[in-house]
Every structure is written in structure tokens, then in C-alpha cells.
Amino acid sequence: MPTTTRDRKLLWARAGGTCALCKSHLTADAKGGDRDVVLGEEAHIVSEEANGPRFRPMSKHEVDTYANLILLCPSDHKIVDEQVTHYTEQRLQALKREHEQWVKDRTSSTIPAIKIRDPEAGKPVMLQRIDTGKELMNVVAHTLAAHHDHPEPRSSEEAELIGAFFQNASDYSDIWDDIEPSGRIQAEFSMSGEITRLREAGLVVYAGVKKHIIEGGVKPPESWPVAYIVIRRSDDETIKAKPTDK
């Protein structure tokens, strides 16, 4: 699975748009009618290729996540991939942490803190029953965060079923804007299969959206939609009595 929009935002934001080694800015302004230039490279700390720099066995899902990426300029990217004896996995992780702390220290005293708040705290979230992947993605596709709730699993198989559903729903939501139409159809079909398996296990999916507000920083307050995805047992009397309650 490609790097999610969420992981990419984390990487660039925490690095302050600068190279983790030389601290150079990783964009160049447009000149003479040309377009702006992105110089930064999202470098893998551990390569996915067996003969690549710092390779070790790692799942495909882990390779392209924020935890395995470091933001570098093209020159330093080439250096760290050529000088693997010096730039070990552990050294790059440490350099990444130090750089992100450096960025945080430089900005924390000049930019107001950012917070996300619920303007209707305490008000129940209106949920709808979800029976297909298309219904699910229509609700959660363009949200910016997610809240999950589920009953206590009764077996390891049930725990795995619930966990995989939440993980895949979050992953598809994160990358939805980057998926081509054919990929979206495949994603909806995949999630329909997971919803069916949950239903066969006696579990029902509900989903809804609540508008939070993000404020602070240098921008005016903006809407921050949060997806609420809830799993309940089909024999849950509370759900039968109030199908739209949280």
C-alpha cells in the first residue's frame, strides 16, 4: 500500500519542510511563470529491496509508513544511501528525532498552539447502519480523523476481524483522494466483503460524521470532520431500540 496522505503530512509537518540533515528548505518558489518546485525526497530508512540500503525483512505495510521515512534533500538522500555503514537504521532514526525536536523547539514559541475541539461536546452522534463498502466510504472518505468503538471481542478470531476492518477503513479513508476511480471501486468491494464477514459473525457496522473545529496556529478556525465508526452485536438491545444513537 502506498504512503498514506496522513503519513505524508506527518513527515513534512514534523520536519518543518526542511532536510533532516542539512536543514535546507525543500521547496523553491516559482520564477518567471514557471511552477513551484518540490525538492524534498521522502527517503526510506529501511529499503524494501533485498539489495537496497539498510534492508531487513519488513512487511509491505510497514515500509511506506511515516515511521520508516525521513525527509531529505536530494544530495543527502544520495549520501545516506551510499554510506550505509555510517548512516545505519538506528543513526537515521536518531537524526530524524533530533531534527523534529529542533523544528518543534523553533516553532513552539512563535506559533499559537493548535487544538481540535468538539463544538457540540456531549451531543450524540447520529449514526446509520452500514451494509456495503460503498455506504461506508460515502460516509468516511473525506474525514480527517476517526473514532472507533466496538464490543469486547469473544475470541482472537473476532479480535482480528474487528481490528482488520478498522485498520482498512482508516487506510482507505487516508488515501481516498489519491485513489483512481477504479481503485475506489476495488476498495468499496473489499470493504463490502469485510462488512459481510462481520455480519456473519453477528456484528453490525454503524457510521456517521461529526464536525469538530481546528483552531490556533496561523490560520482561521476550520471544520475538522471526524468519522465515527461503531460495531455492535446484532443482538444488542440498545441498538435495536435506538439505531441512530452513539
Enumerate the spans where pLDDT stays under 50 for 5 or more consecutive residues: 240-246
Protein structure class: alpha+beta
Q: Strand content of the residues, in percent?
A: 15-25%
Compute the gyration radius: what is it?
21 Å
With helices defined by DSSP (H or I, 4 residues minimum), what is the helix count? 8
Mean pLDDT, as a whole number? 90
The share of residues in helices is 25-40%
The count of β-strands is 9
**Tally of individual domains:** 2
Largest sheet: 5 strands, mixed
What is the first-to-last residue Cα distance? 32 Å
Order of helices and strands: HEEEHEHHEEHEHHEEH
Shape: globular
Description:
The protein has 246 residues and is an alpha+beta fold. It folds into two domains: 5-108, no CATH class; 115-241, no CATH class. Helix content is 39%, strand content 20%. It contains eight helices and nine strands. The longest helix is centred in the middle third of the chain and has 20 residues, at 89-108. The two termini are 32 Å apart. Mean pLDDT is 90; it is low at 240-246.
